[in-house]
Amino acid sequence: MDQPRKHKKYDALIAACHALRPLRTAVVHPCDESSLTGALEAATLGLIEPVLVGPEKRIRALVEGLHLNLGTLRIVNVPHSHAAAEKAVQMVRAGEAQALMKGSLHTDELMAEVVRKDVGLRTARRMSHVFIMDVPTYAKPLFITDAAINIAPTLEDKADIVQNAIGLAQALRIEQPKVAILSAVETICSKIPSTIDAAALCKMAERGQITGGVLDGPLALDNAISHEAAAIKHIRSSVAGEADILLVPDLEAGNMLAKELSFLANADAAGVVLGARVPIILTSRADNQRTRLASCAVAALYASALSGAIKV
What we know:
- This protein has 2 domains: 1-122 and 276-307, Rossmann fold (3-Layer(aba) Sandwich); 124-275, Isopropylmalate Dehydrogenase, CATH 3.40.718.
- Helix 7 (193-206) links the parallel strand 7 and strand 8 (214-219).
- The protein has an 11-stranded mixed beta sheet, sandwiched between helices.
- By secondary structure, the chain is α/β, with parallel strands linked by helices.
- The protein contains 11 helices and 11 strands.
- The radius of gyration is 20 Å and the shape is globular.
- Helices cover 41% and strands 18% of the residues.
């Protein structure tokens, strides 16, 4: 008998994009093999329409060395990575691109241009990052936020981070996502600030300050994803054991959780930055091709939802 396929959740995300037009995406400084081939593969599958922003001679030399074919893809020639980030942001502001995709430059270099006052891509909501994890041992996609942008978020920051993640989950056809607000314990304790934040966020949701999802917390990780663990601790909640979204206390906790799942549980971690004018696809050199494609699919579905092309 054939073994069941792993990572079917990502396959479903990519399949959901078949009805959408490719997302015109400024790929920022695609000057290494992984970032260039990832963008081209996503284009082949119709997920994105890449515009390559970087040093043209260097990009063409890489294309030749890898025996690739750019076809009719456009290259916007700039001298270096900083100029590529600046130009890509300008393209979004001018309506020439509907998303950004990180190439072979540091995240900080790209995000510095995104958050620049007056000429960046800020909105009224705080930007945040979401990992969409395909964990083979969990029945559905697992969203982890924020593990890449906000180092030590305040309560108000966390409210925006949650709302961003809820909007993304809805764009991926999860009508009322269940949000577990994580801490080390399930009870409110003044000595553990994340438990106080969890209680406040739940009350904010009750009062309509956070909408679209079902929130509960504080919850420890085991209670959030395991019915058995929740039952042992007598936790009665529509979120416990059923979480779609895990809101972590801070970047360190989120980053460690995502990497633990990736390297110990064979999970893949697609990622996107929300809260800017357009979705921003953040890739890592450690990402495999499947993860890069899933990140593009997530961005395409989210951008489509923002434009009103699908019901959110």
